[in-house]
Amino acid sequence: MAIKKSELYSSLWASCDELRGGMDASMYKDYVLVLLFIKYVSDKYAGVPYAPITVPPGAGFKDMVALKGSKDIGDKINKIIGKIAEANKLTGTIDVADFNNADKLGDAKTMVDRLTKLIAIFEKPSLDFSKNRAEGDDLLGDAYEYLMRNFATESGKSKGQFYTPAEVSRILAKVIGVDSSAPPSTMVYDPTCGSGSLLLKVADEAEKSISIYGQENDTATAALARMNMILHNNPSAEIKQGNTLSSPLFLEGGGLKTFDYVVANPPFSFKSWSNGLDPDNDTFRRFKDYGVPPAKNGDYAFLLHIIHSLKSRGKGACILPHGVLFRGNAEAQIRTSIIKKGYIKGIIGLPPNLFYGTGIPACIIVIDKENANNRKGVFMIDASRGFMKDGNKNRLREQDIHRIVDVFNRQIEIEKYSRMVPVTEIENNGYNLNIPRYIDSQEAEDIQSIEAHLNGGIPDSDVDALNSFWEVYSGLKKTLFASSARPGFSKLLVQHDSIKPAIFSHPEFTAYSGRVVAVFNKWRNINIAKLKAISKDDRPKKLISDIAEDLLQTFSEVKLIDNYDIYQHLLVYWAEVMQDDVYSLVADGWMAGREIERQDKKREWEGLLIPKSLITAKYFSEEQKAIERLESERDDITRQLEELVEEHGGDEGLLSDSKNEKDKVTKIFVQKRFKEIEKDKEAVDERKVLGQYLKLSEQETEAAKKVKEAAAKLEKKVLDKYSTLTEADIKNIIVEDKWIAALERDVKTEMERISQRLTGRIKELAERYARPLPEMTQEVDALENKVKAHLKKMGYAWH
């Protein structure tokens, strides 16, 4: 059985739990990732001739398993790792963590227990990477990204800089122009590569194997990057350790080696950037013709290094703080020079608090040397408002990533979001690139009309602001509004409480809903066959990409609904449910739909791919309805019982003597009390109430028994049904009743949201201007006169 990605992630994170206490995340990541590396290369390459990674005899993960419980487990793990490191020239890469360190792993017994449990987690059959991998899909790479994100989150502000969020990395990879047509000779470079995530995202875009180069100053992080390359099936990538600015290690012909693409997320505003470097006499002439960056801020030092590392037709992208766009003095001089050379193709403003090393907002500067001489403008995007909260950080959604990439690559101008800014306009602004100077992304203020408050009516400007709705519901506008006697104002033609019914019952509203359903069905009919044809040769990531792109395009012409919102619904469902399903189908085939999962030490069970609720709804709806009727009858009896206790259970009530020590009426105490007064001629009324209680109690017990018996019979029928499902049955249930139905519900939710937005706004305007000030003044005057009259009758004077 294929492992679910969610289970893979939770298993790996459980290994981290074993290390907490003795070290923080910035340290225990070194242990967990090394074990992940050893497990992966052992599963994939042990005993394989001519494999890119050699696993020497006695140095595989199985040899670690044999050490569980051994007193010298830590020392022997170190030796196993050392053998693999030596055999693959990885010394200083995978052997940086000391598995025999008592300070981090505890005393002798604690260390043995901790490492034994750690190995046991990776020993699980579900973590067999030789089997649990869809062809062409980087299952382990995804697990690595999951771990790195969590490590960065837990490491805190000072130690999370080794990781660039995958969402941001994907944007850089997609906007520099790498695609599947890139030849193997293509070279990509990251001068501050961290754990290598940016480089790998560029490689993903190319699809084919390309040449990867990276330099990282921190020794441990450079080791992470080397492991990351191997885990992502890029063992030939060149990762070097050293200070890029003072000692660049990729050289050619006495100067910097140049590349087709360069991407980077350098440390923001790095104060000690010039350590070991004389900027005025830079061997590589990176600052010539531009100027030297400020002594205490290295942002432009990294950007100029990138520019000099690009070929004459090279393209790059760099993440930098917003300050580089507008700061003055030396940086203004450098910025002006770069703009005049035409190197900056575009700037993308990102939301704040995306990165783990800082909370400040950042931007992506896109460099394009190829078209520099003819560049007449800089394309700008303000994407600062598109994100979701994720714990204490912000995170880009799938729809945010796709929108940014689409708009940038197609150079689409959208009000309050993007525009092509002429270089002449930038020049007139003193070469200041601060995005708000060129794009006003603020929401328009909801201005109230004093005249409407004084004289009534709804301003035409407010009605016209809903023009996106009137383009679809032109007749509805005429149903709701008419021109008033005063120019510039409209009057509402329906009562306030009739606004929603008037909208929802209008023929145009119904027709629009029908068109949306038709558009969804068009996508459904095209893709349902593709989904039902999933086989072991499929790549899940390619599959979801194809159907999601088709969904985005299908809804692109639908007014009112944002097609990126629909796209997001599908991608969220993919991440939460569909992804695990597809990976299981690719690994085990459609008959995996018959499988069930039982919880340990419990009788509860659930379908692996098909929830039992779907089986019940499809095949046993009558039985379910019968159970619901029985439950209703039981609940009705329960309510009668509760009402009886409520009526007679007070301190002076007829059930007061039937309470236990917790002041509750129970059947046992009612029976006991009934026997006590069975022959008491003075207790007729009490016996009657007690009898009613006992009768209802018996009825409730019997009703509950019927529910339980019927539910048990249905449960057995449902369980038995799984084994009789045909492949065609399974395809219909998973694809149509589960996947498609879930997305269809989301589309309907979007339609309802749009309708509620229109209804809410019209109600708001109607209530805002419902009563003009003169009318309210007259009412106040009338009430004041009434109060005066009452006071006068009472002998009081009004002052």
Structural class: alpha/beta
N- to C-terminal separation? 88 Å
Please state the CA-atom Rg, rounded to the nearest Å.
35 Å
The number of helical segments is 28
Globally, the shape reads globular
**Model regions low in confidence, pLDDT < 50 over at least 5 residues:** 132-137
Largest sheet: 9 strands, mixed
Helical content class: 40-55%
Strand content: 5-15%
In which order are the strands of the major sheet placed? 3-2-1-6-7-9-8-10-13
What tags apply to this protein structure?
799 residues; Ferritin; 28 helices; three-stranded antiparallel beta sheet; alpha/beta; nine-stranded mixed beta sheet
Explained architecture:
This protein is of the alpha/beta class and 799 residues long. Among the domains are: 1-155, Ferritin, CATH 1.20.1260; 451-577 and 739-768, no CATH class; 615-722; 774-799. 51% of the residues lie in helices and 10% in strands. It is built from 28 helices and 18 strands. Helix 2 packs antiparallel against helix 7 and helix 23 crosses helix 24 (621-648).
Task: Explain briefly what this protein structure is.
By secondary structure, the protein is an alpha/beta fold. It is built from 28 helices and 18 strands. Strand 17 (596-598) and strand 18 (605-607) form a beta hairpin.
